[in-house]
């Protein structure tokens, strides 16, 4: 039986000044189908989704929803058509319950004051097989629970066309399995699902068809069962690319960083890092795995001197850097490349172009007193555009106008060019396409071979097992294990991330992390 088409985009074109974001793009997704949308950074995926969400309007072309041509002028119009967008970064109010987050913004009269609202949300969650406590507060939820709330938000508004942007970025392997089960149930209930992800293994696992965008154009739509990772990559990039991460070996033996009993409190006085100890060796990539909020951010900031340390020591070549400010730490040769969700607020100045953001790293070293020469910074910016394949109208364009992936390339490229002895990277390839991600992996391996010690905080366990030498797992601010990637498995690491340890002899699972 032929399935009805839920959404069809015909010849959609969108320009921003002289930049063509989408050029005669054609996409269709059927009811009861999961469509994966693939493309490099800057290929136009986000722009297309923003037109379905009502944020942008196409310059030309037509949008059809369930066979009817429509005009979407606002997010409200999109919601009325049954389209729901689930963003990578959750849009939830921490101090409200799951139910109140779900109904927030609803125009249904009296719902906020109704005691039956919890029962109503419970019934909706059961209908779709979503497990959530309707009365649980968001600040007490795991990442996967928050994502479930986001899904229920759009279902509550009767959405049967769902768009998910990088939905697995902050989930453990077990949580990803749970999410995919949910998406399959929604597909079986007749929902149309569009999933944007850069993880080819997930595309092959969850989707029914795949549409590939390249340089703003839709180049192909293929049945998932009839394709493979190599073909999808070639369609995305336009040429053959080797899908292998190098793992060079070296003979460096020096310990660069030794962390002893490090404890850090957050602003509420709660310990976000609890008595952790580990070491980072010269010429080593040490991966840090853990679900979001396990202490990764605080670890980066503590090592960079951005937040105070309650107790413990951080020894850089036997010198304790605890208590030093970031400038003094950088002078020792430790470079901070922390790319959080707030990368434009913390790592770069959004209103400045690449040139000015290059100057932020070394303006103190100017030999011309109060006068700063932009020549070297401009040359560095142009070099990064070529080396990192950064898509930007010019090196003077404010970085806020670049895509998220290109912003990350600017930040990480600047840090690598500062020739550090220790490089700390958090989510270095978050939001990057396959081609750009492998360029980053090559750059990190190049630094490793120079003897740089790299702390690599990541999300994709498959990548970490290939790239890293060891992986340290954080859970609720504690280290639950440090494993050698030559012998570790993704399942073993996933269990550590989820507060569970596997007794390999008795095959029993035990809760063991507070």
Automatic annotation (TrEMBL):
Q: Which domain of life is it from?
A: Bacteria
In alphabetical order, the GO MF annotations are: ATP binding; ATP hydrolysis activity
Q: Which keywords does this chain's UniProt record carry?
A: ATP-binding, Cell membrane, Membrane, Nucleotide-binding, Repeat, Translocase, Transport
InterPro entries from the entry? AAA+_ATPase, ABC_carbohydrate_import_ATPase, ABC_transporter-like_ATP-bd, P-loop_NTPase
CDD domains linked: ABC_Carb_Monos_I, ABC_Carb_Monos_II
| A GO-annotated cellular component | plasma membrane
Q: Which SUPFAM superfamilies match?
A: P-loop containing nucleoside triphosphate hydrolases (SSF52540)
Q: Where in the cell is it found?
A: Cell membrane
**What membrane topology does this protein have?**
Peripheral membrane protein
Sorted alphabetically, which PANTHER family does this protein's record hold?
A: CARBOHYDRATE TRANSPORT ATP-BINDING PROTEIN MG119-RELATED, GUANOSINE IMPORT ATP-BINDING PROTEIN NUPO
Name of the protein: Nucleoside ABC transporter membrane protein
- What species was this sequence derived from? Clostridium aceticum
